[in-house]
């Protein structure tokens, strides 16, 4: 129980940039906390206007000069570093379930933590292994790179979502404008012209329905992709917040998903694809109608 509580507390005082316990914690205007060195480096590499930075967590701008030391968080970090797990808890986590030996090695072929007896067993004999301490940093870096990629994918999804909404507005306004023009042109005509009006409106409504359905499908597909990316990001962040052993035991699955996940471009209907709308030739129709009416007089 104490170990579980400690993990949750550590999550609250972990730097979102380096993913380590906060060192010299400072808070931004949006109340997110970072290591002073980490947020300074981030500000120097990504600042926009003078003295203005972008929060790596919520993307809200903040004034670098407003960074304030967070002594409360610093005190929590200090207490955590002083805390030691009980020998029973440490032994339960760090001991091989099969051999009862301490887990000190990592098999890079099978991507699992093992003990020295596992290394000599039939299952891992001849595999490339290394001390856990030697490989942990390497896989943390891989997770960091994969996390940045998926965060970029998430941002891309958000941008495309905005673009899709603009497209929906454009098509809806454009077609609605055409509908109004048709209604104005057909106003006052008799039954002969009413049938023409109905035909034109049906075409426009069908076009609007097809375009809206197509864009809605694209938007739904993009939402699904974004959810998949968000789920993967959540899993990656969870892996990075786990203990070293738990992180290494699950890193292969997360990295494999990251390598196979690709965000597909949504299907957009080119605006140029639609021919320019032309209102019906009302004068010509009236002439035809008048001709029919004149002919009926001689029937």
UniProtKB/TrEMBL annotation:
SMART domains the UniProt entry points to: BBOX (SM00336), RING (SM00184)
Name the record gives this protein: Uncharacterized protein
Main location: cytoplasm
GO CC list: cytoplasm
Keywords assigned: Coiled coil, Cytoplasm, Metal-binding, Zinc, Zinc-finger
Subcellular location, record wording: Cytoplasm
Domain RING-type: 15-59
Cited InterPro entries: TRIM/RBCC, Znf-RING_euk, Znf_B-box, Znf_RING, Znf_RING/FYVE/PHD, Znf_RING_CS
A molecular function GO annotation: zinc ion binding
Annotated source species: Cricetulus griseus
């Amino acid at each position: 129980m104490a170990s579980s509580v400690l993990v949750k507390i550590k999550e609250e005082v972990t730097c979102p940039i380096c993913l380590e316990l906060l060192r010299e914690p400072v808070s931004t205007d949006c109340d997110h906390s970072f290591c002073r060195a980490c947020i300074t480096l981030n500000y120097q590499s990504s600042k926009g206007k003078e003295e203005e930075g972008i929060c790596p967590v919520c993307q809200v701008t903040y004034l670098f000069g407003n960074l304030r030391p967070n002594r409360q968080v610093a005190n929590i970090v200090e207490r955590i570093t002083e805390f030691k797990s009980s020998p029973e808890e440490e032994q339960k986590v760090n001991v091989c379930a099969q051999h009862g030996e301490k887990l000190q090695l990592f098999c890079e072929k099978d991507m699992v933590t093992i003990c020295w007896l596992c290394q000599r067993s039939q299952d891992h004999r001849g595999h490339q292994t290394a001390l856990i301490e030697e490989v942990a940093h390497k896989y943390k870096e891989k997770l960091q790179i994969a996390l940045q990629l998926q965060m970029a994918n998430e941002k891309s999804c958000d941008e495309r979502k905005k673009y899709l909404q603009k497209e929906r507005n454009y098509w809806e306004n454009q077609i609605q404008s055409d509908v109004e023009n048709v209604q104005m042109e057909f106003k006052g005509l008799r039954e002969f012209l009413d049938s023409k009006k109905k035909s034109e409106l049906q075409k426009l409504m069908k076009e609007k329905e097809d375009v809206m359905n197509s864009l809605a499908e694209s938007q739904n597909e993009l939402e699904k992709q974004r959810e998949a990316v968000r789920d993967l990001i959540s899993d990656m962040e969870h892996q990075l917040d786990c203990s070293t052993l738990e992180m290494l035991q699950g890193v292969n699955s997360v990295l494999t998903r990251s390598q196979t996940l690709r965000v597909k471009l949504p299907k957009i209907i080119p605006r140029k694809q639609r021919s320019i709308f032309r209102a019906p030739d009302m004068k010509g129709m009236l002439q035809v109608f008048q001709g029919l009416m004149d002919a009926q007089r001689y029937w």
